[in-house]
Predict the structure.
Amino acid sequence: MTLLTRDQILAAKDLPHEDVPVPEWGGTVRLRGLTGDERDAYELSIIAGQEAVSKGKLTDAHIRSSLVALSIIDENGKRVFAESDIAALGAKSVAALDRCYAAAQRLSRLSKKDIEELKGNSGAAPSGGSISD
């Protein structure tokens, strides 16, 4: 058995992607799985939203549109949406968002159970997490 080296691990192209037809938007989008850092930021944003709700503050967590914004990429593998686009993306068709969200969840190994645990565990991590471009 040959063990991987640091350079081999860091050079690996290990982010899966999938093209998803979105008839509501008139075409196809490419989604990719999150990096470890992106998933951490996404999870922290959910926890921060839940903490705000528990303190009586109104919040719009954008669970679907945040993950979709992090996951849609162009032909070159670059993200299409910035954090500032999340609310506008959230105003799009729920059917389209759900289709993309389901693919993004699968590609990022993020289950419904993971989301429910994050929503129910708002005191477990520091607040202030955000999704970075």
Summary: Residues 122-133 have pLDDT under 50 and may be disordered. The chain has one domain: 18-120.
